[in-house]
Structure formats: structure tokens, C-alpha cells
Task: inverse folding
């Protein structure tokens, strides 16, 4: 047989002596292989397109498959919206109110001094003779602080507060009828501030305010 | 309409254009895959998977290339992958070549269309790389430079594969003829 007579081929001597025979055999086998009908081919085409709809990734632009996947910016926007929703919790008005108040007080303290100092805090205490003492501590000095509330018609000029020696704590004493009163502090005649740690009430028309209860058990 | 025009329309989202491409090249791909794999069902699966990959990667197709050559590059890779995975699946079984050769009827896997079953059976006994090189060279009638671009192998290596595959295939066919199979 001719194949047995061949020596090991060198790289420059790779001509195939059986080329014609092998080519004829392969072409004949190819030609005799039955073709598929158009129905089968159309089914394959549809199957490919259907599979491509669910393929995880690809480069084809503007296809039904790529329209089915949300773009990356969508996921970023959804994450940001979820974060903001969880942070502000609009479904709980009390928490949302508290966040709004905190934002107000922090912006007030930012404008008045360094932010690493304690935030504003207020305190109320009932004294002898139906008098209530209001204390208000600021992180920085202010020129004037006054107390406003439903007891003085929310007028910043009626009840000025007195500064102590530290220069940051302001106090005022006023007689109050037993019951529930809403109040706030006005810094430098223009900035309304509430104590973020004290009980707070929803906006009644004068911005966020605190509430104080004076001797309500003692009322007849 | 040329293949390049159909590719442009496929990229624009026209499914009918892709259907025309499939219809135009399906039988060529199927014959190659059948002679590479030796089984009809496997060949159909591999060809369908190759068209799917071509569809997903059609954005990367360079219009300067022949679409058929680009498609065959995907197809040859899919055939290689399939043979590798089938090799893993069948490794546990004993391959009794004598029993297969002396069987009264050809194995069912290699049966039965009008094609030359002896050629398909002999091809199945070749090394897959030799089989691939023989089919690309003689059945698809590609130049060695095209085969090299398609398979990533050097031209000398491809010539060697064709030569050795050709010798072995001729011997196998002569042997089958002698035994009257």
C-alpha cells in the first residue's frame, strides 16, 4: 500500500498524496447527507431567537433580549431611592418630623459654631408658685435668645431669656397655667430652634415646636 | 441580499433577516458537524448552539470577514467543546473496538441516511484534530491560511494533520472495504 511506503514527512514536504481520493470520498459523503427541510430550519431559527431572549449577556444591540434587561443606571437609581426612603421613613410622620427637626437644629449649630460641640439642648422645670423655668443651651454664643409659645402669642419680643456666666446657657422664668403648652426658642431674633430631645408636636403654624406640660394632675 | 446586509438587519433587530442567514448556512454547518461528531442528534444540538452564539456575538462580527468563515469558526469551537465533554462522559465505558468492528450491523449512532456510513464511521476513528483539518481542507475546500485563521493552529501543523489524517482515513476505508462492511 502506498501509505506504508511513505517516510516520516518533513515540514517542507507535507503534500498529501491521497488528496484526490480523500477529497472525493468526503465530498461524496457530504453530497449524500440529506438536507433538512425548511420547516426544521425555521424551527431552529425560532428556537435560537427564543433562547437569545433569555441569554444572560451578549453584544447584540437593540434586540428584544436587550430590551428585557434593565440598564445599570436603573439599579443605581433604585438603590438610591430605597436608601432615601429608609432614611426618611415617610410612612411614619413622627420620625419624619424628628428628622426634619434634627436637620433644622444641626444647620443652626453649623452656622453658629464648630460642629463637634454639643448640639442645642433645652430643659424645663416647674418651680414653686406655678412658675416654669426654661433653660436653653447653645453650642456657641448668641446675641439674644427669647422664648416664644402659645403663652405669649409667639412673640419674640415678649419673653427675652437671660444669659448665665458661661455665655451659652439662657434661662427664663414665666408663670404658666396648668395644662399643655407649646414653645420654641428664637435665637438672635430670627432663628427658631427646638430642643431635639424634648417632646415635640407637629407644626401648628409656627414651625416645629416643643411641648411642655405644667401640673396637669393638679388641675381641678 | 448578501450575508453582510442580513447581518446589518439582524443587528437592527430584524428576526427574519437572521432566519434567512440560518436557512442559508444551516445545511453546510449541519454536514460539517455531523461528519465531525458522527451522530445526528449531537450535530443538530451543536449547530443550534453555534447559531445562538453567533446571534449573541453578532455585534462583534467584522463585515470584512466572510460570514460563513466567521460562523464556521464558532462551529469548530463548539464541536471541539462538545467532543471534549463527550469524551469525559464516555471515559468510564470500555471501548471495545473489535466488538464494534465485527458487529453485524453498524452501530446505531452512525446509521442511516443516504450518506456513506463507512466514511462517517472511519472519520469517527480519527483524532478529532485530524478529522477537523481533513473536513475543512477537502470537504469545505478551505485554504490553509483560512484554516489557520479559523482554528488558531499554524499552517505546518495543519498540513501535518491533513496528511496523517488522510493516510489513516485511507487505510481505514481500505480495511472496511476488505471486510465488506
Result:
Amino acid at each position: 500500500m502506498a501509505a506504508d511506503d511513505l517516510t516520516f514527512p518533513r515540514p517542507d514536504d507535507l503534500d498529501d498524496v491521497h488528496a484526490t481520493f480523500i477529497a472525493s470520498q468526503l465530498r461524496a459523503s457530504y453530497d449524500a447527507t440529506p438536507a433538512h427541510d425548511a420547516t426544521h430550519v425555521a424551527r431552529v431559527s425560532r428556537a435560537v431567537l427564543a433562547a437569545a431572549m433569555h441569554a444572560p449577556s451578549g453584544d447584540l444591540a437593540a434586540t428584544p433580549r436587550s430590551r428585557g434587561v434593565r440598564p445599570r443606571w436603573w439599579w443605581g437609581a433604585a438603590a438610591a431611592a430605597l436608601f432615601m426612603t429608609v432614611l426618611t421613613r415617610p410612612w411614619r410622620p413622627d420620625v419624619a418630623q424628628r428628622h426634619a427637626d434634627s436637620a433644622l437644629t444641626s444647620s443652626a449649630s453649623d452656622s453658629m459654631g464648630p460642629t463637634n460641640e454639643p448640639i442645642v439642648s433645652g430643659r424645663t422645670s416647674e418651680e414653686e408658685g406655678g412658675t416654669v423655668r426654661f433653660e436653653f443651651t447653645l453650642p456657641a454664643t448668641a446675641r439674644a435668645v427669647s422664648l416664644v409659645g402659645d403663652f405669649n402669642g409667639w412673640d419674640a419680643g415678649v419673653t427675652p431669656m437671660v444669659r448665665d456666666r458661661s455665655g451659652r446657657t439662657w434661662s427664663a422664668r414665666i408663670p404658666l397655667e396648668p395644662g399643655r403648652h407649646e414653645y420654641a426658642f428664637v435665637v438672635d431674633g430670627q432663628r427658631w430652634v427646638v430642643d431635639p430631645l424634648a417632646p415635640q408636636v407637629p407644626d401648628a403654624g409656627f414651625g416645629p415646636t416643643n411641648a411642655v406640660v405644667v401640673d396637669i394632675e393638679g388641675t381641678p | 441580499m448578501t450575508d453582510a446586509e442580513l447581518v446589518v438587519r439582524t443587528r437592527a433587530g430584524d428576526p427574519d433577516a437572521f432566519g434567512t442567514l440560518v436557512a442559508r448556512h444551516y445545511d453546510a454547518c449541519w454536514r460539517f458537524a455531523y461528519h465531525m461528531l458522527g451522530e445526528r442528534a449531537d450535530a443538530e444540538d451543536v449547530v443550534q448552539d453555534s447559531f445562538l452564539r453567533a446571534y449573541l456575538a453578532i455585534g462583534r462580527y467584522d463585515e470584512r470577514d466572510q460570514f460563513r468563515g466567521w460562523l464556521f469558526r464558532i462551529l469548530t469551537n463548539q464541536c471541539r467543546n462538545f467532543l471534549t465533554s463527550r469524551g469525559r462522559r464516555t471515559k468510564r465505558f470500555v471501548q471495545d473496538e473489535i466488538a464494534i468492528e465485527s458487529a453485524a450491523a453498524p452501530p446505531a449512532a452512525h446509521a442511516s441516511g443516504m450518506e456513506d456510513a463507512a466514511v462517517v464511521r472511519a472519520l469517527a476513528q480519527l483524532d478529532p484534530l485530524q478529522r477537523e483539518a481533513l473536513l475543512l481542507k477537502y470537504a469545505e475546500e478551505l485554504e490553509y491560511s483560512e484554516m489557520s485563521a479559523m482554528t488558531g493552529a499554524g499552517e505546518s501543523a495543519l498540513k501535518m494533520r491533513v496528511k496523517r489524517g488522510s493516510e489513516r482515513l485511507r487505510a481505514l476505508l481500505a480495511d472496511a472495504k476488505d471486510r465488506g462492511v
